[in-house]
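Question (not urgent): is this output format expected?
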Amino acid sequence: GTAALATGDAAASASSLTTSSVSTGVTHSSEYDVYVVAEDALGNFQASATRVDVTTAADATPPTFPSPPTESSVADSRFDVTVELNEGGKVFYVVVADGAAAPSVSQTIA
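Got this back:
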C-alpha cells in the first residue's frame, strides 16, 4: 500500500459521536482519503475499512503579527528587525527615510 500521511486511534462508545483531529501530514487545499475501521471490546474488527473523502480548506487568511515588529541591535549603520507571526510564512520589508510615504504592499513585496 501507500505510505500513510497520518495515523491514529480514538476510544469510542456506543451511540455517541467520537471526533479525532488530524493536523499532521496534511496541507491546505488538498484532497485525502481517510479509511476508518472499528474494533469492539473483544478485539473484533470490521471486515473492511470505510472511506471518507476529505478536502481541506484553502488558507485564505493572511498571517498577522501577535505583537508589533521591533528593532534591536541598533548601531551606527545597521539594525535588526524582529517579527513574530501567528502562522508560518515569509516576511518582506522596505526601509525608507523617516517621514517618507509608506510603501504599498505591492511595493514592499516587489
